[in-house]
Amino acid sequence: MGTKMIYKENILRYASTILLLICLIFGCNEETTAPVNNDPIITSIVAFPSSVNLADSFAVVCSAYEPDDDSLFYDWFCTSGARISGAEPSTPSFLYHTRENIRILYAPDSIISQIDSIRVSCDVRDGKGGGHSADIFVRIIE
Question: In sequence order, what E strands does the chain have?
Fold first, then answer.
């Protein structure tokens, strides 16, 4: 019984020595860090024209870049009864996960209350958790 115990102790001692040597050789003390994901950066958001009549169309361009060179996705939102081209008829003021940084929008046909502008928001995402958003206001001329 004593020989078996000594044998097990020797195996454990050798194993711990080997693990210690591996750590010393390959740097077990170094901390590994996850790669950093930078957020996309919106450089400008512009509307053409910046003032519209009821039922007119207008374009919004959201210029952005991604420091990590990741692909960009654009989510579009608008208020005041405006509609976004390409949006579903059931949700005309939302359009998600597009690749285009330009959108055509349509001002409302009529104004229900004292609304004098349309807010257009663009959220730019990189698909890896990074994002940035910007708004622009388009004036409604009655």
Answer: 41-48, 51-53, 57-65, 73-78, 83-84, 94-98, 102-106, 117-125, 131-141
